[in-house]
Specification:
Strand 4 and strand 5 form a beta hairpin. With 188 residues, the chain is of the alpha+beta class. It folds into 2 domains: 45 residues; 113 residues. The protein has a 3-stranded antiparallel beta sheet with strand order 1-2-3, with no helix packed on it. It has 5 helices and 6 strands, in the order E-E-E-E-E-H-H-E-H-H-H. The C terminus is likely disordered.
């Protein structure tokens, strides 16, 4: 491995650890000439996955192209590069189900599912390009769907936190029945 600072061909591995379900190995290296430290990543090379475009053209899957699209959608949003890299790795890993070819629609949907949980503005930005929004009504329709999904999530979350209606249920912490004070049975 050549040093990125001085181009010297010899280095020493200082640290090595697996990343992303052990499909990638991260190595910290030290140049033996200039003592600069740098990081390299090793990935298993496999049969290239081909992406089937909407017009039925085929091109090799590009992790960098996928990352660029996600970075563009997340520009000026509170999404860290580490979160973007994790998203890219998760989507790439999930595509292992496909042996030789994967439709772009599948890649886009997997990215959208994860972006929705990370940042809804980035989700809408990515969806606008991926789903080819042609006018303002397309945006509004997607935003309405987002709002409805958000309301459902909030409602489901509130339902999970609601006090049980069965008076026989006990509170795990205190052992007391989960009833309002006025509804507690009198002790004899």
């Amino acid at each position: 491995m050549r040093c990125p600072a001085c181009d010297h061909p010899e280095d020493r591995v200082i640290d090595s650890r697996p990343l992303e379900s052990a499909s990638v190995i991260r190595r910290r290296r030290l140049c033996l000439h200039c003592s600069k430290r740098f990081t390299t990543y090793e990935r298993v090379e496999s049969t290239p996955l081909m992406v089937i475009k909407r017009d039925n053209r085929r091109e090799p899957f590009s992790r960098d192209k996928m990352r660029e699209g996600i970075v563009r959608a997340c520009r000026k949003r509170p999404v860290s590069p580490a979160v973007i890299e994790k998203l890219v790795s998760e989507v790439e890993y999930s595509l292992q189900d496909y042996v030789l070819e994967v439709p772009t629609a599948e890649i886009g949907e997997r990215i959208l599912k994860r972006l929705y949980d990370i940042d809804t503005v980035a989700y809408v930005r990515f969806a606008s390009v991926y789903r080819s929004f042609g006018d303002i009504d397309s945006f509004l329709t997607e935003i309405k769907r987002l709002k409805q999904a958000h309301r459902r999530r909030v409602t489901l979350g509130a339902a999970r936190l609601a006090v049980p209606k069965d008076p026989m249920l006990k509170s795990p912490a205190s052992g007391d029945a989960l009833l309002p004070d006025a509804a507690q049975p009198a002790t004899v």
